[in-house]
Amino acid sequence: MKKKVTLPEHACNSHLHIIDPAFPNDGKAAEQRGTVEEYRALADRLCLSRAVFVQAKPFGTDNTCLLDAIQRYGREDSRGIAVVSGKISDPELRRLHEGGVRGLRFSVWNPANAVVSFDQCAPLAKRTKEMGWNMQLHMSSEQLLEHANEIAGLPGRIVIDHMGRLKPELGLTDPAYPFLCRLIDKGNTWVKLSGPYLNSKKGAPWDDAAKVACALAAYAPERMLWGNDFPHVTEKAKPDEWELLDTIDRWFAGERARRLALADNPAEVYGF
What we know:
alpha/beta; eight-stranded parallel β-sheet
């Protein structure tokens, strides 16, 4: 019998991807598959009622699959993070907003497969600030430091992906960790505690990544978000979903911290 994890009402999975090969893609969607129906079945078992769908790379800047996922899962319980180019029109940005999108992702951690470049972030942040969107940054710790001034100067909300991708061998001694703390202190930055396998040189329960997650959660529980990174496209051997869910109790000290990361903070950032 699986261990029961303590979850607040309206618990939100703030980071996952819907990858439906029925939509036009780069040819990789079938092997990375994770449909709305498959995720809903999982979410029902895990008791995660709300979801934030993040645009997946097989679809590039075509957010059709993302918008479809929001509609089918339900606008009351889901939001989206899109990927767009700087050439997008204001009416198209508004259409995305009306479809449930609440932010843009810049996944530049691996420049070889990046869909957009970071230099488009600041202009788009200015264009979407009035809609309350966040700029979600998936960057290496070195990239965070390289672009520290630009990131700190972004208007509106900032969300840092996957614990800032601190180097596993450095953990809390990574020079990017104090920068993350300074960003948090500014009051407009949240950090996603997700993808522990991306931040670990160990297998589950990813103790090295857990030290970073626990430290961040203790530093500013009001600025943390949690996600399970379904369908785990980076992992050949898929992690156990229940073990990932168990990180909630392992990383967050007490009911208040869990409620903030799983319910209150997502409601603030994504407008639930």
